[in-house]
Amino acid sequence: MARSEDGRRTAEPGPAGPDTVARLVDHAAAAYGEAEALADGETRWSFTRLRDEVHAAARAALAHGVRPGNRVAVWAPNSRQWIVAALGAVSAGAVLVPVNTRYKAAEAADIIRRSGARLLLTERGFLGTDYVAMLHDSGADLGGLRTTVVLREEPGSAAPAYGTVSWDAYLAAGAAVPDAERAARAAAVRPGDLSDILYTSGTTGRPKGVMITHGQTIRVYESWSRTVTLRAGDRYLLVNPFFHTMGYKAGVLACLLRGVTMLPEPVFDAGRVLRRMAEERVSVLLGPPTVFHGLVRHPERARYDLSALRLAGTGAAMIPTALIEEIRRELGATDVFTAYGLSESTGVVSICPAGADAATVARTVGVALPGTELRIVAPDDGRVLPPGRPGEVVTRGHHVMAGYLDDPAATARAVDPDGWLHTGDVGVLDERGYLTLTDRLKDMYVVGGFNAYPAEVEHALGGHPGIAEVAVVGAPDERLGEVGVAFVVPDPAEEPPTPDALTAWARERLANFKVPRRFHLVPELPRNASGKVLKTELRRAAREGPGAQEGEGTW
């Protein structure tokens, strides 16, 4: 058993991983043994202890009637209980259905009902939210849901339990199930069986259930974790929510595959994260650009020793080069990578390897996931386009979803007869095969006959020191057809920029037709439950807002 510089037991590199998520925790225990698997407050578990906890949860699932292929939903924030409950259910042959913690009762009930979930694992009282009471009080149709288990109940949760089962009672019921039965159920799971159904974020409509198999999940994240250089002995702060692919698969499952210590974080708070990074000697951190922006800009950042951080990962259409440089300089990350993916591609399409220069990391999302294909095609007729020509990003390979749950028509629109997944994203490949994303097809607007891509404009404006966030949409214009409208969230640490200053900044960096004709100062950008900017709301605001003549740039 290896030891880190501060004396912690760390994992030695283990054998090749299993072929299903159901057997992953057993693989991790056999490969990494007594190395630290999880650190959650005062709780410190080895991989062996984690395996035992998951086995107990699997027996509990069997005791509560979970059969192979049954859906089990988890509606709870990041915690060790989430990890144990979810892996236990999957080990019992269930299909995991993570539910967004930002959902309101009606939204969660819709997912529970449409997925056919029979068992729900949730919490009461986290940050004042009682998920059980929310569902009960809503009166929503929960379909075939039979049992609700409360993973954690915060002190002071006074509402009645509505017939729920406590976590302790759930586990106690499993004590009567022979371990041989649990082992047989896990062994019966095949790589082609569904492992989970993750619902899309639904920025333009009703969320769709993306079906992914065990074999896809294992193969993709074996490759992903190797490419980004995740390694045994790393300490990984899990700030991405577990209901998201990047939290569950690029977080929990990747840690089990590579012998990495998991440190679940229930909600992002920059000050708390900085403190925990220093105390726990965190070496790996993944998150959206807003996470890193919050850490870099935190007024007390310099107080914390972040020298253990070696690997930072993020992803977005375009990331300011300055932010990549700040992650390296201010947070001390020696390696920074970007990646791109969507639920329909098991979370990964491309990866920009750690070690690339700041400009490449910021401006591209890397090359195709090993073993998969990536092309740029003309949106109108599907012609394959050469390097340097923008078009729709399409991808093919083992990472492409099994389909949308109960929606063959939508599946056929997304995946063509040749197996190519049409992402709906606009991008450009360079001669090296590196992909640069420019925008969503639906977000592009046309100014006087010229195509304008909001992400490109956002990238240019995002470099202004007075801007914390910016989103650009197209709005109708009598003379030009459409023009750009920018919604700007000012950086509280800087003097707010004036519209004229932003117009001048943009004109120095963009062709005139790309420069927004109007700027709106806003305290925050509207987002959906997954944190994605709701451009439909911004387009509505742009249409209904006060007009501005070309070049005026007024708030």
Q: What are the salient characteristics of this protein?
A:
29 strands; alpha/beta; 17 helices; Rossmann fold; six-stranded mixed sheet; 555 residues; globular; GMP Synthetase, Chain A, domain 3; seven-stranded mixed sheet; 3 domains; disordered N terminus
The CATH topology of the largest domain comes to Rossmann fold
Counted by DSSP, the helix tally is 17
Strand residues, percent:
25-35%
**In CATH's first tier, which class of the largest domain applies?**
Alpha Beta
C-alpha geometry: globular
Mean pLDDT: 90
* Uncertain runs: 3-15, 547-555
Overall helicity:
25-40%
Number of domains: 3
The largest sheet has its strands arranged as 14-13-15-16-17-18-19
Strand segment tally: 29
Structural class determined from secondary elements: alpha/beta
Largest sheet: 7 strands, mixed
CATH architecture identity of the largest domain = 3-Layer(aba) Sandwich
Please report the distance between the alpha carbons of the first and last residues.
61 Å
CATH superfamily of the largest domain: ANL, N-terminal domain
**Rg, please?**
24 Å
User: How is the quaternary structure best described?
Assistant: single chain
